[in-house]
Amino acid sequence: MAEIRVENLRKEFGTFTAVQNSNFVVGDGEFFVMLGPSGCGKTTTLRMIAGLELPTSGKILLGGEDVTMRRARERDIAFVFQLFALYPHMNVRKNIGFPLLTQGVSKAEIRRQVEETARLLRIDHLLDRAVSGLAGGDRQRVALGRAIVRRPKCFLMDEPLGTLDTEFRDLMVHELRELHNRIHATTVYVTHDQLEAMAMADKIAVMNHGVIEQFGTPQEIYDRPATMFVADFIGSPPMNFLPFHAGLARGSREITVLGARVAVPEVREDMAPADMALGFRPEHIRFDDASPLRGSVYGTEYLGTTQIVAVETAQGIVKARIPAEQSFQVGESVGLALNTARLSLFERGSGRAVSTALHGGGARV
Ligand code: ATP
Question: DSSP characters for 140-207?
Fold first, then answer.
């Protein structure tokens, strides 16, 4: 297995720039997810790593070796588009061994590698069974076995769960992560689904319009979004934003929003007067009658243990996730108490997070 290093990687299609100077490192054995909306450049980046697309500029290093100009088959990478198509007329053993057969590997070696892979996936007792008679989960394991049997330097996966229904998707998310924990194969996984990304990734790059807006662990990205785009893309419901207009001096700990003073994490940079936004996640709001930050209940969505309450404020709707037992009337006035330690501040023009005690040294990426 190997580290993947991407340096100033850029891809232009005519006058259109699909990937703008990406930089990231996927550590040896890491599960790395590229996440973003359709058309943001995820697949193009993956295809360049695979050697299926030549970059306009920049470098790709695999295990320290510059492979930028190498052909796909010279890179020892497994590109997995589709995990689920099995050959129905072959048994489990032949399905898993098929990629080795097409590479001309000897029969004895195929046997050895197939058996080792099957043991790893805990399906060695099924090797001589027909795939058509297998339960869903076992079929997925066979498909995975076929993808990993070659033991390449790394795996590249492009929305491999895209066509599955929710039940199998959840099963496969769990299965893929569990497999990763056992084989530690360097993996680059592309998806537009934030839940898949959060559940599987060691590191995530959130992309938008060809730019990596943030690179970090799922927790860093959720807790300290570097931009309003990231804050909005991650989380369900996404982060709330309330606009405010203020110049902030370094060391500030208070702002005015909706006419009320709100305590914020200590601001670590001077900010000229600008249109700003206060960001906070639905679970970081409490209802407190004493709070001067007010709105009226607009609607509720019952979720079992919690509920999402939409509150209409003078600056738009805010969504709060609160315990399901609390009950409200539509139109009722409520006070919103925000968890100071979890607030984010953004400059609305650029969308970037202002550096605060919460954001550490600097959030610009
Ligand atoms: P999706 O999930 O929809 O595939 P993505 O984030 O993977 O989205 P890409 O497939 O990388 O996005 O495409 C990025 C942009 O580059 C899109 O606007 C796409 O239309 C454009 N693009 C991709 N391949 C080509 C090509 N061969 N020629 C011209 N434009 C292309």
Answer: HHHHHHHHHTT--SEEEEESTTTTS-HHHHHHHHHHHHHHHHHH--EEEEEES-HHHHHHH-SEEEEE
Confidence of residue 139 (pLDDT cuts 50, 70, 90): confident
Per the domain annotation, does 169 fall within a domain? yes
Pocket test for ligand 1, best of 11, 35, 43 (most atoms within 8 A of CB): 43
Question: Cα torsion for 87, 93, 94, 95, to the nearest 10°?
Answer: 30
Helix or strand (DSSP H, E) at 92: helix 92-102
Q: Pick the last residue of a domain from 191, 223, 255.
A: 223
What residue has token string 């738009």? 316
Instruction: Please give the radius of gyration of the chain, using alpha carbons only, rounded to the nearest integer.
Output: 24
Which residues, listed in sequence order, are joined to residue 203 by a DSSP beta bridge? 32
Higher pLDDT, 247 or 307: 307
CA distance 42 to 31: 15
Site residues for ligand 1, CB cut-off 6 Å = 13, 16, 18, 36, 38-44, 192
pLDDT of residue 1: 62
Classify the C-alpha dihedral 152-92-121-163 as positive or negative: positive
How many other C-beta atoms are found inside a 10 Å radius of the C-beta of residue 164?
Answer: 17
Q: Are 176 and 209 in contact (CB under 8 A)?
A: no
Domain coverage including residue 140:
4-223
Summarize pLDDT for 322-331 with one digit per residue, the tens. Answer: 999 998 899 9
257 in Cβ contact with 244 (< 8 Å): yes
* Residue 298 pLDDT > 70: yes
* CATH code for the domain of 244: 2.40.50.140
